[in-house]
């Protein structure tokens, strides 16, 4: 670090991506400043809901598998170093008709990358996992490397690891502006101005407030918890994490972790928000009906009225692919944004990517398709 700077790298936002970035930067020996507008492991962004799926056989495409392999290694490392149950390997069950694009991507993922898996025909799937009501012809693919993550605990653990390595992380400190310079950048807060060599913007739904031209839309993520008729049938050893696409319904969920309920989520039903300040934490009962009807149809062993729900949010891009990289007109600013509801499982590897970009100007991981300026109009 040069003498006229306050740190090598500042990280703006200490949620899923920012906490992992701070951890990876500090583990690399960099001096790190971090800024979080709320408390650590808050529940207003994308990293909430008690559990999240980890999938290696990826519905979004086999090109993600190298990132997911490295992410899994880092999840296990953080689990070991923190001494907390952050990652629980249960496998992940994908359900759908064989010809559906998501199922084809799962097949390509396992074929191209040699992933350990099982393909279950309709009869075997129904016999092994009777908790799921199937549509004629549906199959299951069990991804042996899949499992469950604990989001809030993971963010807290990454922050603790970063602090243990010397990172100076400021809670309840909103960043008002980022001012790029030829030799670095200045981070502006109400408490002061901080000069750094690089800035990583990992502000989730708020990212476009600091980098105005980012092409992201803020959307709610709604998660719900349902009580099973027989809890034992939905424990992790009998009911793995799952994701299914049936008749246009995209439903995912996790087994019982709290001794009481199964968590389910639903995609792309709720309208975009005007901005992060428009987040509504409590939804009226009619707004939950698409999800409760899906649970009633596909998981008949669950009481179809949720005992509770939580509303979170994320930044979405038009192609549901993240925005990752340095800004061409401000190379001292690295962006991590637009993870479109499927980024948490990848958070440690994106933290590593951001650390590489901030410290070395490049990364060995293939993130070229995530160019943060790809939606910019042609000059």
Automatic annotation (TrEMBL):
<dbReference type="GO" id="GO:0008115">
    <property type="term" value="F:sarcosine oxidase activity"/>
</dbReference>
<keyword id="KW-0560">Oxidoreductase</keyword>
<keyword id="KW-0285">Flavoprotein</keyword>
<dbReference type="GO" id="GO:0050660">
    <property type="term" value="F:flavin adenine dinucleotide binding"/>
</dbReference>
<dbReference type="InterPro" id="IPR006076">
    <property type="entry name" value="FAD-dep_OxRdtase"/>
</dbReference>
<dbReference type="InterPro" id="IPR045170">
    <property type="entry name" value="MTOX"/>
</dbReference>
<protein>
    <submittedName>
        <fullName>Sarcosine oxidase</fullName>
    </submittedName>
</protein>
<keyword id="KW-0274">FAD</keyword>
<dbReference type="InterPro" id="IPR036188">
    <property type="entry name" value="FAD/NAD-bd_sf"/>
</dbReference>
<dbReference type="Pfam" id="PF01266">
    <property type="entry name" value="DAO"/>
</dbReference>
<feature type="domain" description="FAD dependent oxidoreductase">
    <location>
        <begin position="8"/>
        <end position="357"/>
    </location>
</feature>
């Amino acid at each position: 670090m040069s003498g006229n700077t306050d740190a090598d790298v500042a990280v703006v936002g200490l949620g899923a991506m920012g906490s992992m970035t701070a951890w990876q930067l500090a583990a690399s020996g960099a001096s790190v400043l971090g800024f979080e507008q709320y408390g650590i492991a808050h529940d207003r962004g994308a990293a909430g809901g008690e559990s999240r799926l980890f999938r290696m056989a990826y519905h979004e495409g086999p090109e993600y598998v190298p990132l997911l392999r490295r992410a899994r290694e880092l999840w296990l490392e953080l689990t070991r170093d923190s001494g907390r149950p952050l990652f629980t390997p249960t496998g992940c069950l994908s359900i759908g008709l064989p010809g559906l694009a998501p199922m084809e991507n799962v097949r390509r993922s396992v074929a191209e990358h040699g992933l350990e898996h099982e393909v279950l025909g309709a009869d075997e799937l129904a016999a092994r996992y009777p908790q799921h009501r199937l549509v004629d012809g549906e199959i299951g693919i069990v991804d042996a490397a899949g499992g469950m993550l604990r989001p809030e605990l993971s963010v807290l653990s990454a922050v603790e690891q970063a602090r243990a390595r010397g990172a100076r992380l400021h809670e309840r400190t909103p960043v008002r502006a980022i001012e790029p310079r030829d030799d670095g950048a200045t981070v502006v807060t109400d408490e002061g101005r901080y000069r750094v060599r690089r800035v990583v913007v990992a502000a989730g739904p708020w990212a476009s407030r600091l980098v105005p031209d980012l092409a992201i839309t803020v959307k709610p993520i709604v998660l719900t918890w349902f009580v099973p008729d027989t809890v034992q049938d939905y424990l992790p050893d009998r009911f793995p994490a799952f994701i299914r696409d049936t008749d246009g319904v995209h439903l995912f969920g996790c087994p019982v972790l709290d001794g009481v309920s199964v968590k389910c989520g639903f995609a792309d039903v709720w309208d975009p928000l005007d901005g992060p300040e428009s987040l509504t934490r409590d939804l009226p009962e009619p707004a939950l009906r698409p999800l409760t009807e899906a649970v009633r149809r596909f998981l008949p062993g669950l009481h179809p009225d949720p005992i509770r729900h939580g509303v979170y949010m994320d930044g979405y891009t038009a192609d549901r692919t993240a925005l990752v990289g340095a800004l061409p007109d401000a190379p001292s600013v690295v962006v991590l944004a637009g993870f479109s509801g499927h980024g948490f499982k990848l958070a440690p590897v994106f933290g590593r990517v951001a650390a590489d970009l901030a410290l070395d100007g490049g990364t060995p991981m293939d993130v070229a398709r995530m160019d943060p300026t790809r939606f910019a109009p042609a000059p």
